[in-house]
Structures are given as structure tokens and as C-alpha cells.
Design a protein that fits this description.
Elements: E1 2-6, H1 15-28, E2 33-37, H2 43-47, H3 58-62, H4 68-71, E3 73-74, E4 80-83, H5 92-98, H6 106-114, E5 119-123, H7 130-138, E6 141-146, H8 150-166, E7 173-177, H9 185-197, H10 210-213, H11 215-218, H12 222-225, H13 230-246
Parallel strand pairs: 1-5, 1-6, 2-4, 2-5, 6-7
Antiparallel strand pairs: 3-4
Helix pairs in contact: 1-13
The chain binds adenosine-5'-triphosphate and magnesium ion (MG).
Length: 251
């Protein structure tokens, strides 16, 4: 059992796109998988054709006993469930701050779910807030998609610095490149340099492809609607690299 957040300080780097496709690929391998959409924008919820606000509100989260059956939504795909976003998640910071001790943190809320799912993926909002810190402590792994641009990588370094300052365990962090445009020299150079320099950087990357962008229109994971496409192949290939790292017991 593993909990993996998909996170970056920066917005629009491919967090939700990755979270949705990885969750789908995990469930397709017959692994009970849950995706929790922690972003009030509700994009992951939208991609699965579900409605925001039908899941767990920030307030309900603090209640001693949550009826998980009533808040977890089934998707169109076997073994893949979603905990939909809620607009109240914009206040999740405040709510979690009210939970005094660390044992009341996000991980303890997830405990009952860890018995039902082999992989829980958290689609995280951008920014670096109290919620982010709570997520960093709750997860076993933090998947960090990076567009290979100077500013994105600069923000990634800020995440590493934050982890160091808070003693959060850098080994949780698994960076990878997303939205790579190989026709751009800067992208090529950054990918080459950082995959060589950073031991933890995934070797496989997600290219910038119109078929991936179309997910917003089709509202299905890429390997489901275009299984033979280069776009699907990219997610399958990166997932195969990630899987033994995320699910060590299965490696
Ligand atoms: N590999 C890709 N190729 C082309 N377009 C992509 C790719 N990955 C993501 N996109 C598009 O880029 C936009 C941002 O992607 P996504 O929503 O996954 O980013 P995010 O990091 O979750 O954003 P936010 O910070 O707002 O939550 C979306 O319109 C998505 O369709
Ligand atoms: Mg997102």
C-alpha cells in the first residue's frame, strides 16, 4: 500500500494530467486505486466525468467517523475510485490547522482507506501552503512533474529547500519531466542535463502532445481513448518506471 501525491509549487505543469493517467494505469493492472482530488478547481474530478461537491467536504473531514462508502465515487473503470474535489478545500489549510496534533493530519484521515486501496494518489493544488506541508508529511512519495524550463526547475529547487529546512525526507521526492517539447533547445538541454545530474529524476518523460491536451474534451485517461498512441505510450512507459519505486513490495 502506498500514498503518492502529485505536486508542484507551480501551476499548470501537468499534475492533474499525470495523476489521472497514473491512477487509470494502476487500476488497469488490477490494483484497487483511489484518486483524491484535493484541488478545489476539481479538474481530476471533471476528467472522470464526476461532479465536485459530492465527496468529502473540509468540515466532514474532521468528523471522527467518515462514512467512506457515501463519499467515494466509482468511476467508469474497474477498481478505480475517486474522492471528488470540494470547493471547501480552499479552506483545507485552516481546517487541518485546527486539528492540533500531527496524528490528526491528513495521513490519519486516510488510514481507513489504506485498508481498501493498494495505491492512493493525491492530486494536489499548486502553491506551498499548510495543506502542502500536511500532504508532504502524509505521503510515501511525492511525484513532481517539471516542465523543462528555468523557472519551473527553479521552483522545484524551492520544494527541495523546503523539504531540507523542515527535515521532511527528500527520498520521498520523485521528479519527472512533463510537457517536453523536443523541438525547443532549452527543453532538450534541461532534460539531458538533469536526468544525468539528478539520481532520482525519472529517465522517461512525458512529451507535449495535442492528444494529451485533448483529455479535457474527451474526459477519459489517454491510454483508454487512444491506447496505441505515442501519448498513451509515454504514460505507460513512465508508469512502468515509477511502479517499482512506488510499490516497492511488488517490485
Ligand atoms: N503532456 C502534455 N501535452 C499537452 N498538453 C498538456 C500536457 N500535460 C498537460 N497538458 C495541458 O496543460 C494544461 C495544464 O495541465 P494540468 O491541469 O495537468 O496541470 P496542473 O499542474 O494540474 O495545473 P494546476 O496547477 O492548475 O492544477 C491542461 O490544459 C492540460 O490539458
Ligand atoms: Mg491540477
Amino acid at each position: 500500500m502506498s500514498i503518492a501525491g502529485v505536486y508542484h509549487i507551480k501551476g499548470g505543469v501537468g499534475k492533474t494530467t499525470s495523476a489521472v493517467n497514473f491512477a487509470y494505469l494502476s487500476a488497469r493492472e488490477e490494483r484497487p486505486t483511489l484518486l483524491w482530488d484535493l484541488d478545489p478547481q476539481g479538474s481530476a474530478t471533471y476528467y472522470f466525468n464526476l461532479e465536485s461537491g459530492l465527496g468529502l467536504s473540509a468540515k466532514k473531514l474532521l468528523k471522527a467517523k467518515t462514512d467512506w462508502e457515501s463519499v467515494v465515487q466509482r468511476t467508469a473503470y474497474p477498481l478505480l475510485d475517486v474522492l471528488p474535489a470540494d470547493f471547501s478545500y480552499r479552506k483545507l489549510d485552516v481546517v487541518l490547522n485546527r486539528a492540533k496534533s500531527e496524528k490528526d493530519g491528513l495521513r490519519s484521515f486516510l488510514k481507513p482507506l489504506t485498508r481498501r486501496y493498494e495505491l492512493i494518489i493525491l492530486d494536489c493544488p499548486p502553491g506551498i501552503t499548510l495543506l502542502s506541508e500536511n500532504i508532504f508529511r502524509a505521503v510515501d512519495f511525492l511525484l513532481v512533474p517539471n516542465i523543462p524550463t528555468t523557472l519551473c526547475l527553479r521552483s522545484y529547487v524551492q520544494v527541495l529547500t523546503f523539504f531540507r529546512q523542515k527535515g521532511l525526507g527528500l527520498e520521498k521526492i520523485i521528479p519527472f519531466f512533463s510537457m517536453v517539447e523536443t523541438r525547443k533547445r532549452l527543453h532538450r538541454e534541461n532534460v539531458d542535463f538533469f536526468t544525468t545530474k539528478l539520481r532520482r529524476m525519472c529517465r522517461r518523460t512525458i512529451p507535449y502532445l495535442a492528444d494529451i491536451e485533448r483529455m479535457g474534451l474527451v474526459r477519459q485517461p489517454v491510454p483508454h481513448y487512444l491506447p496505441q498512441s505515442p501519448a498513451a505510450q509515454a504514460f505507460v512507459s513512465l508508469w512502468e518506471e515509477l511502479r517499482p519505486r512506488l510499490l516497492m513490495a511488488e517490485a
